[in-house]
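Supplementary Methods, section 5.1.

A reviewer requested that the exact input to the structure prediction be made available. We therefore reproduce it here, unchanged from the version used in the analyses.
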Amino acid sequence: MRRRLVVGNWKMNGSLATNAALLAALAQGWKPVAGREIAVCVPYPYLAQAQAALRGTTVGWGAQDVSEHRSGAFTGEVSAGMLTDFGCRYVLAGHSERRQHFGDTDAVVGAKTVSAMRAGLVPVACVGETLAERDGGLTAAVVLRQLDAVLAALRGGPAAPFVIAYEPVWAIGTGRTAAPAEAQEVHATLRARLAEAGMQDVPLLYGGSVKAGNAAALFAMADIDGGLIGGASLDATEFLAIAAA
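The structure derived from this sequence is encoded token-by-token as follows.
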């Protein structure tokens, strides 16, 4: 049975003071439910703070990106092994903002996914189309191309857990959200491709302006196993309500 997973992506937000209050609220407010997990992916400088605040709780933590390289002369990069030093369980790979602003290609996302898995992390590999691609009827082609790059990278790699998140670029931070049926259609397409690879139980998350008010309807869809939450994850009350939906 696939588990429910809700992951918060703080993006480039936070401070020691605001983080302390948010992490404490999550640690105290999350009531574990069988088959459900929550986690937050925080900026690199705050991984130690997240580890200290969440260690011993049922709230997981992770990073927002990872290098495809294990070590070496890659100034500014952070390896998967470094993330495990801070107790990370999850790491994002290929978020649309990394693809759009920092040039992460499909091949790089696949390599980052494998790098994370080899270190014992659970990568959340992200796929999603732009508004122009959606309006051009290219949604399925785009997300399957992105997923196929991850699956190709996994061939011969470690047999370890991973997660796929569908985040339509046009719905990230815009207030627009795919209707539950629209999101389900894309998730069903992704699920079918995963099933072809014998990976039908890989969790599929939806991201894109998910809020407490629409989470239950989205999570009720057959192939949506939870959410990758952006701005709403900075509000403990809102994030916990989403996770409980």
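The chain has a mean pLDDT of 95. These observations are discussed further in the main text.
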